[in-house]
Amino acid sequence: MTLHSAPSDSAPLDSATLVRTLIAAQFPHWADLPVEAVDASGTANAVYRLGEDKVVRLPRTEGSAADVATEAYWLPRLAPQLPVPVPAPLAQGAPAEGFPWAWSVCTWLEGTNPAPGEGTWAPDLFAADLAELVLALRGIDATDAPPAYRSEPLASRDAVTRKVIAELDGVLDAGAVAAAWDKALTASPFTGAPVWVHGDLQPGNVLVADGRLTGVIDFACMGLADPAVDLIAAWYLLPAGARETFRTAVGADDATWERGRGWALSIAVMELAAYRESNPVTARNAWWVIGEILAG
Q1: What are the two backbone dihedrals, phi and then psi, of residue 61, each rounded to the nearest 5 degrees?
Q2: What gap in Å lies between CA 39 and CA 19, rounded to an integer?
Q3: Residues 95, 51, 68, 236, CA torsion sign
Q4: Does the pLDDT at position 132 exceed 50?
Q5: 3-state helix, strand, coil in the chain (%, to 5)
Q6: Mean pLDDT, to the nearest integer, of 102-124?
Q7: Res. 117: pLDDT tops 80
Q8: Is the pLDDT of residue 119 over 60?
Q9: Whole-number mean pLDDT of the chain?
Q10: Is-contact 167 220, C-beta < 8 A?
Q11: With 80 as the cut, is the pLDDT of residue 118 above it?
């Protein structure tokens, strides 16, 4: 869920017809494959299934379009070192037919997005799977890796986070949220070497089946950062009872855990402010995160 730009900066809503036209013109060997819109809540890309085993992603913003080349370069290098499948880039499309940006074709991964709090999956097993993923990313060689989308120190988000919390006063308990943010900022800052992170471990970006992690999609935020960034998964993807399993498995000390909580809170309030009227799934996830953090 990459907030590259405000929703008003997004491209006009695209269609399966546009995808068919782009495919026929640029990748005619796939022109006979059926195209079906995927009911996804992502704010960075419109997603279309192409045949049985491919997916077309049309960026919704100029910032998201810049991620096409980054993912095409890095995902094949990361994939062999990760414990679960990730999309394999198959082709990069060019602007055409009125669509202004680069776009991509990747492999389709089976699975469903988890729904935190519904209790329909196996959270402790899922927590262990998430920890394995996070640790695998951290262990990848950082040479020549790009900075992550969220590579800045947590404290540098203070002004904008407080501004958004104030704007949401009356929508949420701004005093309680500000207090939770204050607490996160008391954590010692990260001073080590940055590590590989996914950067956006949210429900829409992971896949599960039978309670287990089966795939990770949308690596637009990936790169080097404070390892606390990927700890947002504890609040975005796990119920309270499974968080300690995740924390123990990743070996998060108190400061790193608190910074992870701060990252989750800052991201959630910004998403709530941006999407509470336009994207109910994203807003629901943000509400969940905020509620879980306030609950302690």
Answers
A1: -140, 160
A2: 15
A3: positive
A4: yes
A5: 45, 15, 40
A6: 85
A7: no
A8: no
A9: 91
A10: no
A11: no
H or E element at residue 56: strand 54-59
Amino acid at 1: M
Q: What is the pLDDT of residue 12?
A: 42
Residue 121 tokens read as 């999956």
SS3 labels along the chain: CCCCCCHHHCCCCCCHHHHHHHHHHHCHHHCCCCEEECCCCCCCEEEEEECCCEEEEEECCHHHHCHHHHHHHHHHHHHHHCCCCCCCEEEEECCECCECCCEEEEECCCCECCCCCCCCCCHHHHHHHHHHHHHHHHCCCCCCCCECCCCCCHHHHHHHHHHHHHHCECCECHHHHHHHHHHHHCCCCCCCCCEEECCCCCHHHEEEECCEEEEECCCCCCEEECHHHHHHHHHHCCCHHHHHHHHHHHCCCHHHHHHHHHHHHHHHHHHHHHHCCCCHHHHHHHHHHHHHHHCC
Give residue 120's pLDDT.
Answer: 59
At 91 the three-state DSSP class reads strand
CA pair distance 173, 30, nearest whole angstrom:
51
Quick one: which of 6, 104, 94, 113 has its CA closest to 46?
Answer: 104
The SS3 of residue 92 is: strand
Check pLDDT > 80 for residue 42.
no
pTM given for the model: 0.91
- Name the maximum alpha-carbon separation found in the chain: 57
What's the pLDDT at 270? 97
* Alpha carbon of residue 206 to chain centroid: 8
Residue that is written with structure tokens 């039978």 in the block: 210
Q: Which two tokens stand for residue 168?
A: 């949401």
Give the residue ranges of DSSP H helices in 208-253: 233-236, 240-250
Q: Residues 54-95: pLDDT tens digits? A: 999 999 889 889 999 999 999 999 999 999 999 999 999 999
